[in-house]
Design a protein that fits this description.
With 74 residues, the protein is mostly helical. It has one domain. It contains 3 helices and no strands. The model has no long low-confidence stretch (mean pLDDT 79).
Length: 74
């Protein structure tokens, strides 16, 4: 396992976990939509203000939620 461990990839995971934590603190942990398609839309709506606030601060990291949902098993 030590041979296969990639520290750069692990660091990326840390950033993703931090962003999800911020999103949950700012916009709540739960979703109101019941259907999967509408849940995706609801999350995108939450991500837009987050990205805008990051751009306003001059930080050029944007969240692309599509990549997260491509890995979903549904």
């Amino acid at each position: 396992m030590r041979v296969l461990f990639d520290p750069e990839l692990y660091y990326q995971r840390n950033k993703v976990e931090t962003v999800f934590s911020v999103l949950k603190r700012k916009f709540g942990e739960s979703l109101k939509a019941r259907k999967y398609r509408l849940q995706v839309k609801e999350i995108k709506i939450k991500v837009i203000p987050y990205n805008l606030s990051r751009l306003r601060k001059g930080i050029s990291v944007l969240i692309v939620i599509e990549e997260f949902y491509k890995a979903h098993p549904f």
